[in-house]
UniProtKB/TrEMBL annotation:
Organism annotation: Lysinibacillus fusiformis
Name by which UniProt lists this protein: NosL protein
Protein keywords: Signal
Keyword field contains Signal: yes
Region Disordered, annotated ranges: 181-213
Amino acid sequence: MKKLWLPALIVLFVLAACTSEKPQVKEKESEQGATEIETKVMDDSVQVASLVDSRLQEPKEDTVCEMCNMKVYMKDHEMGVFSGQAIKEDGTIAFYDDIGCLLNAEVANEENNAKFVRDFVTKEWAKVEDVTIVKTELKSPMNWGYIYFVNKAEADTYIQENSNAYMEKLQKIKDDALERRKKMMEKKAEGENGDSSSMHSSDMNHGQEGHGH
């Protein structure tokens, strides 16, 4: 009988060992799955960045905004992160000092441009449609204060670390830019009308003075 019990005990021991190994195998599989997901996320971010047009250029020291004629800051300047550029349908490049000018250029010039902004972390160009846009309290050239992230996780981190920052939709910025442009054009028109009235009054006064003599 003792000889029969010995093989049975060995079998039970082997089964117990196999059972204890299964959770470890599942744990390793879970870790492997998580790693694959993280790798995929990183690959997606790289893929977005790799789609940037090879025709893109960098502004020079004397580059000015196509819309407002203000200075466009270079990549290594603290204001350079707000710069934008567009590739027009004919392949020409235009630079902008801030996102409002970048967006309004299409309206003002009746164009359909490929529009690019800088990633806040890498300072590399990315399509404005492909980035996560964050409204901040940072001072930008035209006081828009928007920064851009290719990697949404980095945008989330920035917002967590800056309580007044929040994500904004591109369409909302387009609408705001158009509204600001509309008000500027109205103000400009009023100024021109005021100058015309002033010149007309001046001419009348000169005419009356002439008749007096």
